[in-house]
Amino acid sequence: MMSRVKAIVLVLVLTCVLAGTVLPELVPTQESIGIRLTDVAQAAGVTVLNVSGEQKKDFLLEVVGNGAAWFDYNNDGLMDLLVVNGATLEHLKTGGDPIATLYKNNGDGTFTDVTAKSGLLARGWGMGVCVADYDNNGTEDVYITGFGSSHLFRNNGDGTFTNVSAAAGAGVTGWSTGCAFGDYDRDGYVDLYVARYVAFDPEKTPRPSQGSFCQYMGMDVLCGPRGLRGEPDVLLHNNRNGMFSDVTEQAGIHDPGYYGLGVVFSDLDNNGWPDIYVANDSTPNFLFRNNKDGTFTEIGLEAGAALSEAGAAQAGMGVDVGDYKHDGNFAIFVTNFSQDYNTLYENGGKATFRDVSYPTGLAGPSLPYMGWGTGFVDLANGGFLDLFVANGHIYPQIDQYALGSKFLERKQLFHNQGDGHFRDVTDEIGGGVLIEKSSRGVAFGDCDNDGDMDILIVNLNDRPTLLRNDGGNRKHWVTLRLVGTKSNRDAIGARVRITAGRLVQTAEVRSGGSFMSNNDIRLHFGLGQETRIQSLEVRWPSGLVEKSEDLRADQFLRITEGQGILVLDVPKAIPKY
After folding, report:
1. Which portions of the chain are predicted below pLDDT 70?
2. How do residues 274-288 score in pLDDT, each as one tens digit?
3. Which helix (H) or strand (E) covers residue 91, if one does?
4. Under 8 Å CB-to-CB from 557, ≥6 apart: which residues?
5. What residue ranges define each of the domains in the chain, with the CATH number in brackets?
6. Across the chain, how many H-helices and E-strands are there?
7. What DSSP letter does each residue of 50-62 carry, written as one string?
């Protein structure tokens, strides 16, 4: 059932140019974050067991893990959940395992497995997922990457899906990992970027102790990715007729065989055109600048976003972008290997970056951990974006050595202090973040529609973690669902700027990101103590700019391009446990 409209359309003031705004001075805050993240996966019924190779971990394929996605597949106003699954090499010989589980949100804090009923049935070795309405018909479609093949599932609008991978020309082969939809040519239809990792053949890949790249700090470990051949990424153009075309070469996506994992579309130079950032493992990260003519230029090195401050390639895995300083520029955050640090690239404007991981307080606490899924997310609704990181090692044998790292690791939450610095508050909030797992994909979404963001985490060879946010909605917030008309229907690429008191925040509608995962597509803003929004401005992918004023906080709003704002009476998922 569609969400009910509660109020009359509010009038928007339309304009065709962005008005200049002086950003207010940031207000530092040292207060406690005031939330607790409680693992409710078992009570919620989210209990599917992840399969990702054998416990011994002789091959790289067995440790990369999987992603997850929050999305409303049946348009009932509740976030449903898709969890991607791997397989074992033995099972792969006979077709593999189910690549995903789809959970329907029951609206009472629990979920029901509807995979078979929905038709999201395929076997193989799944990896990641991204979601978007690629055919602009009002329902969310699903792309699942994997080892061997990837799958595009078209939403039929009746609670079921059809696998159209071959018919749509979207069945990328090889070992595909992260993916993201984005309308890079702004023609009103989302295109698709698929990162690929390694040309892997278990029959030809060395086992531990059999190669020079099969050693780590004196231990015999699985081999790779260094020493193995990388696979180039793929860019698929949406032909606006239900089909895609591979435009990788003609669009200038030149990949020399780096090891691609995380990917995100984002307008990083503030010119209205989405760029592409790719976190590469053990090789420099990519930043493809959009040339506004259907082509891209790779500028990662010259932009300062490819390497660490010391000029070294890191083990890029998860990635997200966000305006953590309220300056209107999206910074880039990349998770990396243990004994190295997670990297925050500050955006100085016009896509010029510098590594500020140490001065912001993020580098030191991350050194013992191996980071994967991540996100800029305001969990406490204080008005500033925090950073969440899921951790977990790839070498089980590391527990046998005193190296400062463990195979099972806790998560980390870095609280934005509002002055350009972050504070590790993991111990302070306790609860589910302290549970040690070898975690991989992370997806953020308000799964109970209570005004704060919850977290789903995929754990290697284990059951998921569902962290319910308790206390985040004590402060004020607003959640926006943008709907394009001339722009793509999901409004992916739209940029929103809101002013509430001294808080001026900028966010962007995106697909993909984190680590091979997909977040709730609705834009969530924490507003702190502010009860009203003085101004809200939307810059649509079509170029249209719309503004409105004096909106109440603590509500869900639907903004339709050129048609105004609707206040939504979304169903609240009150837990029955």
Report:
1. 1-31
2. 999 999 999 999 999
3. helix 89-92
4. 478, 479, 480, 481, 551, 565, 566, 567, 568
5. 37-567 (2.130.10.10)
6. 6, 41
7. P--S-SS--SGGG
